[in-house]
Design goal:
The structure is a homodimer of 187-residue chains. With 187 residues, chain A is mainly α. Chain A folds into two domains: 58 residues, Homeodomain-like (Arc Repressor Mutant, subunit A); 128 residues, Tetracycline Repressor, domain 2 (Orthogonal Bundle), CATH 1.10.357.10. Helices cover 76% and strands 0% of the residues of chain A. In chain A, helix 5 packs across helix 7. The longest helix of chain A is centred in the last third of the chain and has 28 residues. The mean pLDDT of chain A is 87. At the A-B interface, helix 7, helix 8 and helix 9 of A face helix 7, helix 8 and helix 9 of B. Chains A, B: Keywords: DNA-binding, Transcription, Transcription regulation. Chains A, B: It holds the Pfam family TetR_C_11. Chains A, B: It comes from Streptomyces katrae. Chains A, B: This is TetR family transcriptional regulator.
C-alpha cells in the first residue's frame, strides 16, 4: 500500500500496522544500524506476523527504503527559503548533517547495499532516489519560476551531493566551509 | 633489514612469497569478488602459512589495499598525453572502464568497506587513496608546469571521480558522453 492509499484510510488496521513496523525499524536502526537485523526481528518488535511484513512490503529492502524516505522527508525536508542560494545552502547543510550524524554512514551504506542486492533491492533504492530527486527538482523549478538560474537535480547530485557522499564514505571530514564551497561553485 | 627492504630485493624469498600471495588474491578476487575470502584461503592458495601473511601485511585489509593499488597502477596508470585535456579525458575514461568492469563495483565496495572496518582498514584505505591522489597531482602539476591551468587533485576527486563513483554505486549507467561532460565542465 502506498502513501496515498494509506492517507485515504486514516486509523485503519493497515495504518496501525505500518506505524508499528516503522517504529520497530527506527528503533532497530538506532540500536544496531541499518541492515543489521532481519524481517523476523522487525516483526517481533512490532508485534505483527512476519507474513504481514512480507505481504505488504515484499522484502526487508523495500521496507528499509520506505523508512529511509520517511526519515529523510521528516528530518531533511526540501527547503523553501525564497532564494536559490538560500535553498541550496540549507539543503546541502541538511544533507551534510544527515550523513555525518550517527546513522549517516549507515544510511549511505544502505543505499549502496540496496543497489547491489538483486532486482528487488535495486528497485527499492531506485524508487527512494527517484522520489528525492523529484522533490529536489521541485525546489530548483521554484527558483527558475522566480527568474533565477535553472538548475538540474542531476547537477546537484553530481557536484554537491556526490562529493559529500564520497568524502563521508572514505572517512574524510566535511567542514561547513567545504559544503558552502560546493554550493558556491555551482552558483 | 626490515620487511619492506626484504620485499624490494628482487628474487629473494620475500619477493617470491609476495608474488604468490598477490597472485592468489587476484585469483580469489576474480572468482569471488573483493572481500569474499579469508586470510586462510589466500594462504592456502598461495602455498604459504597464514602467519607469513599476518607477519608481512598485518591484516587482510592491508593486503587487499596493496593488491588494489598494484592493480590500479598496472591497469590505469596516470596518463601523460602532453595536454591537460588529453590527460583528464584519458584518466576519466580509464576510471570509468575500471569501475564499470566486472570487478568495478567490488573495488569501490572494498574502498568503502576498508574505510568503515576499524583503524587498520581506515589506514589501509587512506594510504591507497593518498598514493593515487599523489600520482594524480603529479599529472596535474606537469600540466601547470607546461603553462596550462593549475588544478587540484581534490577538485578532480570531487567533480570527476565522485559523480562517477556515486552513479556506479547507485547502479546507474556511465556513458562516454557523460564522462567527457564531467571533464569539459572542469576545464
Amino acid at each position: 500500500m502506498n502513501e496515498k492509499e494509506r492517507a485515504r484510510r486514516p486509523g485503519g488496521r493497515s495504518a496501525r500496522v505500518a506505524a508499528q513496523v516503522h517504529q520497530a525499524v527506527t528503533e532497530l536502526i538506532s540500536e544496531r544500524g541499518y541492515g543489521n537485523f532481519t524481517v523476523g526481528e522487525v516483526a517481533a518488535r512490532a508485534g505483527v506476523a512476519d507474513s504481514s511484513i512480507y505481504r505488504r512490503w515484499g522484502s526487508l529492502e523495500t521496507l528499509l527504503s520506505e523508512v529511509a524516505l520517511t526519515r529523510l522527508n521528516t528530518q531533511s525536508p526540501m527547503p523553501d527559503t525564497g532564494t536559490l542560494s538560500g535553498d541550496l545552502r540549507t539543503y546541502a547543510a541538511q544533507v551534510a548533517r544527515e550523513i555525518t550524524g550517527p546513522d549517516g554512514p549507515a544510511v549511505l551504506h544502505l543505499a549502496i547495499a540496496l543497489s547491489s542486492s538483486g532486482e528487488r533491492g535495486r528497485q527499492a533504492g531506485e524508487s527512494l532516489r527517484a522520489e528525492r530527486t523529484r522533490q529536489l527538482q521541485g525546489m530548483l523549478d521554484r527558483a527558475r519560476d522566480r527568474g533565477e538560474p535553472a538548475l538540474d537535480a542531476f547537477d546537484v547530485l553530481d557536484h554537491i551531493l556526490a562529493p559529500m557522499y564520497i568524502r563521508v564514505l572514505f572517512g574524510t571530514e566535511l567542514t561547513p566551509e567545504y559544503v558552502d564551497g560546493l554550493v558556491d561553485r555551482m552558483l
